[in-house]
């Protein structure tokens, strides 16, 4: 592949990353609010399955473990969580998740370093996020 094509591929990858940039903060917000990071971090060397975590947060949606698994897998791909494959009781492989070092800054515990969780949740609150649409109403939009 010529250098120009390699550069074009990399630029295309960057464009895709930009288009998906909102996903990680929204997923992190979705697991911070019910205390999922706190649950995973409560046993530092333990790994929990999405089903176990769903039980701790009293999720009512029967599909919660599947949805949670997808969110946690994304966070693991970004090294926010650790992920291992283990054989379940049914003999099928399943993902289990553990705390990575950054989790100590994402928990709401009083001990240890200061948590950025409250700041993150404030910055991603619905009211704050909706305020970002106002520049469009101030004439910055072409439509």
TrEMBL record:
SUPFAM superfamilies: Winged helix' DNA-binding domain (SSF46785)
Source organism superkingdom: Eukaryota
GO MF annotation list: methyltransferase activity; protein dimerization activity
Domain O-methyltransferase dimerisation: 17-108
InterPro entries: COMT-like, COMT_dimerisation, WH-like_DNA-bd_sf, WH_DNA-bd_sf
UniProt entry keywords in alphabetical sequence: Methyltransferase, S-adenosyl-L-methionine, Transferase
Record flagged with keyword Ion transport: no
Protein name per its UniProtKB record: Plant methyltransferase dimerization
One of the GO biological process terms: methylation
One Pfam assignment: Dimerisation
């Amino acid at each position: 592949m010529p250098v120009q094509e390699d550069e074009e591929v990399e630029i295309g990858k960057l464009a895709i990353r930009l288009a998906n940039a909102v996903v990680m903060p929204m997923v992190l917000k979705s697991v911070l609010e019910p205390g999922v990071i706190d649950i995973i971090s409560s046993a530092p060397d333990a790994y929990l399955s999405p089903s176990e975590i769903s039980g701790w947060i009293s999720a009512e949606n029967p599909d919660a473990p599947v949805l949670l698994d997808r969110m946690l897998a994304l966070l693991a791909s970004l090294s926010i969580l650790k992920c291992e494959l283990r054989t379940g009781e049914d003999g099928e492989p399943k993902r289990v998740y553990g705390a990575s070092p950054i989790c100590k800054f994402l928990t709401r515990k009083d001990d240890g370093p200061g948590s950025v969780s409250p700041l993150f949740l404030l910055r991603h609150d619905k009211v704050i996020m909706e305020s970002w649409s106002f520049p469009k109403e101030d004439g910055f939009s072409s439509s």
